[in-house]
């Protein structure tokens, strides 16, 4: 989502399934006025949702952006989907910032992780 070029690069940890992943893939328009500020606000806001586990984001040089938000349960995901500020940002995104996008919501059935130099560990129970 936002450009955290000084932040350490690491994926969201593996959690004990089941949990949910919302995969948002988008191509943005050239008109990006206000996008960064709104994006930062959404990143702050989603952290207040009980059951929010984290987010992974990436941007290709060609302009395809992918964000994956992880939620402990369907209720947490619904709370985020129906948040008033988030809904307003979605509307503005369709009107100004996105050429196209897709959203896929999936229930995670299996999860594990790897970090070089560390002993393998079980998923977190978040």
Automatic annotation (TrEMBL):
The keyword Isomerase does not apply. Pfam families: ABM. The keyword Oxidoreductase applies. GO terms for molecular function: monooxygenase activity. Residues 31-92 form the ABM domain. Keywords: Monooxygenase, Oxidoreductase. PANTHER family: ABM DOMAIN-CONTAINING PROTEIN (PTHR37811:SF2), BLL5343 PROTEIN (PTHR37811). This is Antibiotic biosynthesis monooxygenase. It comes from Streptomyces cinnabarinus. The lineage of its organism: Bacteria, Bacillati, Actinomycetota, Actinomycetes, Kitasatosporales.
